[in-house]
Design goal:
The complex is a heterodimer of chains A (about 160) and B (about 350).
Chain A (H helix, E strand, L loop, with lengths): L12 H32 L11 E6 L7 E7 L2 E7 L5 E5 L10 E3 L4 E4 L4 E3 L5 E3 L8 E7 L2 E6 L2
Antiparallel strand pairs in A: 1-10, 2-3, 3-4, 4-9, 5-6, 6-7, 7-8, 9-10
Chain B lengths: L1 H12 L2 H9 L1 E4 L7 H21 L9 H10 L4 H28 L8 H23 L4 H15 L5 H9 L6 H33 L17 E4 H26 L22 H12 L3 E2 L2 E2 H22 L1 H4 L5 H23 L3
Antiparallel strand pairs in B: 1-2, 3-4
Helix pairs in contact in B: 3-5, 3-10, 4-5, 5-6, 5-10, 6-7, 6-9, 6-12, 7-8, 11-14
The chains are: A alpha+beta (about 160), B mainly alpha (about 350).
Chain lengths: ~160, ~350
């Protein structure tokens, strides 16, 4: 608009200075907001919890597991599932469903692993066989040491 | 004396024009007139939520160790605590229900057409926020159902392209759903959402006042002319609305007393998700449909596809004032009517399946 020394098409000498001031003020304000936002974003994401480096855990005693049964056990901060097959073999997996994070369970009627949240099915090697899970369950290593069933991370 | 007090306030704040506006505000009367009450009922239920929510705050403790026990204490020991808690849960559900009815009535009457695009969009965002209230509030009693619902819900945000990872960690307060998540959800539920929701609600209501009530096509003389009758907002419409509020209150108290809201079982992070698990009914249309999408579709994770689908549905509803430009010209395009019917049919089918045949 005519007569208004704004940064646009106004008087000739003013825009340079005004533009400079606007740049400094605007830039300063943006930097201030940016630095505030940065610290807020950093603040809301909590620091990583150090992994305890859990190597193995005793999931139970051999005699506690009937054939064709399963049990959730604590593997560090996360749940694991230990299955004793019809043939007496032990298998262990992470119990976190690969679909949307629910904790799976062993269904002795189906003789495989099932997730109640969205009807995901996994066979006894952890493979996703039906329903929405996109990937197999993460396998864990099982060793029977005397009476103890010891589960550890896959090497 | 009242007159003197009024004059004293009015001379400082000039409230007389506002009162004159309210005195002269008219509500159009036509055969779809009854749908106008739904927004008011939703507002009434929100007021109940604020009141009962504040009462719950007096005893609730937002930590993994104490949350479940504190709700148990409220419903078993605190006088009328059972009523306050049950009313809060029931009113939340009724509020979402009436908000959906309000949404679809406005959708089919095409009241989103110019100049009310922003009113529609603010209403849609209010509904999303109300669902956020439902999602965050669901976890607060720290029971098993809510624990898994939260695991699933936050994991879904993780699948959103680009910002998903950040959102998931932000909501959970870490890698997993833990007590930290509970404390965060508490803050979101009682501070962040109320602040945003209330501001937007005020804007939504102001827009409705500023623009007046929309009248459907049929009563604007485009197709079926109807008599252009009107009713004063105050007291005629207001008193009718008030009767409905009393009816809503009666229903709410009936439900709270005779069907008290369950507390469930305390969270055990090392237990399997129980069979028949499902989120609150207004999320079941999503959770149920996720059961039918296979793990991988066209090389893409099924869950991502589902989320993109729901996102597209939400975006369609949010932006419908700009997509349906026929409505602005007073024409009823069948696509939008059928899209609305399709969305309702889909939601009702999935909700029914979730309860009748979950697997």
């Amino acid at each position: 608009m005519e007569g208004r020394p704004t940064g646009g098409t106004g008087a000739r000498s003013a825009p340079g200075r005004r533009g400079f001031i606007e740049l400094i003020l605007g830039g300063g304000l943006l930097t201030l907001l940016g630095s505030m936002l940065y610290s807020v974003v950093r603040y809301v994401i909590p620091p990583k919890v150090a992994d305890a480096g859990l190597a193995s855990v005793v999931a139970g005693k051999v005699k506690d597991f009937a054939l064709n049964s399963g049990k959730i056990f604590r593997f560090g901060n996360r749940p694991g599932i230990l299955v004793r097959t019809q043939g007496g073999e032990f298998r262990a997996f992470s119990a976190i469903c690969t679909h949307l994070n629910c904790t799976v369970q062993y269904r002795s009627d189906l003789e495989h692993i099932w997730c109640a949240c969205h009807n995901g099915h996994f066979d006894l090697v952890g493979k996703n066989i039906a329903g929405p899970p996109p990937r197999p369950l993460d396998p864990l290593e099982v060793v029977v040491r005397g009476e103890d069933v010891v589960v550890s991370k896959k090497a | 004396m009242w007159r003197a007090l009024f004059d004293w306030v009015d001379s400082r704040l000039q409230i007389a024009p506002v009162l004159a506006f309210l005195r002269h505000k008219q509500v159009p009367v036509h055969r779809h007139f009854y749908w106008y009450y739904l927004g008011g009922i939703t507002l009434f239920l929100f007021a109940i939520q604020v009141a009962t929510g504040i009462l719950l705050l007096l005893y609730y403790k937002p930590t993994a160790e104490a949350a479940f026990e504190s709700v148990q204490y409220i419903i078993t020991k605190v006088p009328f605590g059972w009523l306050v808690r049950s009313t809060h849960s029931w009113a939340a559900n009724l509020m979402i229900f009436t908000a959906f009815l309000h949404l679809f009535s406005v959708f089919f009457l095409k009241s989103y057409r110019p100049p009310r695009e922003m009113t529609w969009m603010s209403g849609m965002v209010l509904l999303f926020l109300a669902m956020g209230f439902g999602f965050s509030g669901y976890l607060l009693p720290w029971n098993e159902l809510a624990f898994f619902a939260t695991k699933v819900g936050t994991d879904i945000t993780g699948a959103v392209p680009l910002v998903g990872g950040f959102m998931k960690t932000f909501l959970r307060g870490g890698e997993d759903v833990t007590g930290t998540t509970l404390t965060r959800f508490f803050g979101i539920h009682v501070a962040v959402l109320p602040m945003i929701f209330t501001s937007l609600l005020v804007a939504h209501l102001l827009m409705v006042q500023r623009q007046g009530m929309s009248t459907p096509f049929t009563s604007e003389g485009h197709t079926v002319p109807t008599p252009s009758r009107e009713m004063p907002f105050f007291p005629n419409f207001f008193l009718r609305e008030a009767v409905l509020w009393l009816g809503t209150l009666a229903l709410l108290l009936y439900l709270s007393i005779f069907l008290p809201w369950e507390l469930g079982v305390k969270v055990d992070p090392f237990a399997s998700a129980p069979a028949g698990i499902r989120p609150e009914w207004f999320f079941t249309f999503m959770s149920q449909s996720l059961k039918y999408i296979p793990g991988t579709v066209l090389g893409m994770d099924g869950e991502v596809l589902g989320i993109l689908g729901f996102g597209a549905g939400g975006a369609f509803l949010l932006l419908v004032p700009f997509l349906d430009w026929w409505a602005g010209k007073g024409r009823r395009h069948p696509f939008f009517t059928w899209a609305g019917i399709g969305i309702i049919a889909f939601m009702l089918t999935m909700i029914t399946l979730a309860y009748v045949k979950p697997y």
